[in-house]
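Duplicate of #3305? Posting structure anyway:
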């Protein structure tokens, strides 16, 4: 593989590894933080309903609280494995850093002193470890959160040199679709309210 294609391959693999790490961290964060947040929210709303029992949307609010309770129970199924997600995320970050170092080593070599086949072999070993270490079972919405963690909490400039991300890459297609549906629902609700 020549230098140009090896750099591109490193960037693509670096993206996969870093996004995988962020997805593991997203699952860990959701499992770690969401039950406490849901408990606070449901307790706050429950207190509000006691204070103001004749609230116009009290039935809808009760249904919403039940849904939040079911969500908390679903999330708690991951509780016994949450530390594995954190550990695996840390391991993937280390793999990402190794790929980045190889990328910079090759990119900075102007004299042709770096053996590209050795660097390619190292990249393939790292990627083999990545595929072996990856946890495929991730929690619901971890993709969306991983996009946020990747594009807004990570330094991915070296990957962007090759991939040149656009705004479309920063928002998952499923998120854009759901956002569109929510906007349409809000517009229709407002129009129905004023008619």
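Output from current build:
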């Amino acid at each position: 593989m020549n230098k140009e294609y090896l750099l591109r391959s490193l960037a693509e693999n670096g993206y996969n590894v870093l996004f995988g790490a962020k997805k593991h961290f997203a699952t860990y964060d959701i499992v770690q933080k969401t039950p406490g947040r849901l408990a606070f929210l449901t307790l706050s709303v429950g207190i509000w309903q006691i204070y103001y029992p004749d609230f116009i949307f009290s039935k809808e609010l009760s249904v919403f609280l039940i849904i939040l309770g079911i969500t908390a129970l679903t999330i708690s199924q991951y509780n016994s494995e949450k530390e594995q997600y954190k550990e695996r995320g840390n391991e993937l970050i280390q793999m990402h850093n190794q790929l980045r170092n190889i990328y910079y080593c090759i990119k900075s070599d102007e004299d042709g002193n770096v053996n590209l086949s050795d660097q390619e072999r190292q990249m393939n070993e790292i990627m083999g470890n990545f595929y072996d270490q990856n946890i495929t079972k991730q929690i619901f919405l971890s993709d969306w959160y991983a996009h946020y963690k990747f594009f807004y909490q990570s330094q991915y400039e070296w990957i962007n040199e090759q991939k040149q991300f656009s705004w479309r890459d920063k928002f998952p297609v499923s998120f854009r679709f759901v956002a569109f549906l929510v906007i349409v629902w809000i517009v229709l609700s407002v129009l129905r309210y004023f008619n």
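Confirmed duplicate; merging threads. The CA atoms of residues 142 and 191 lie 34 Å apart. The chain has a mean pLDDT of 90.
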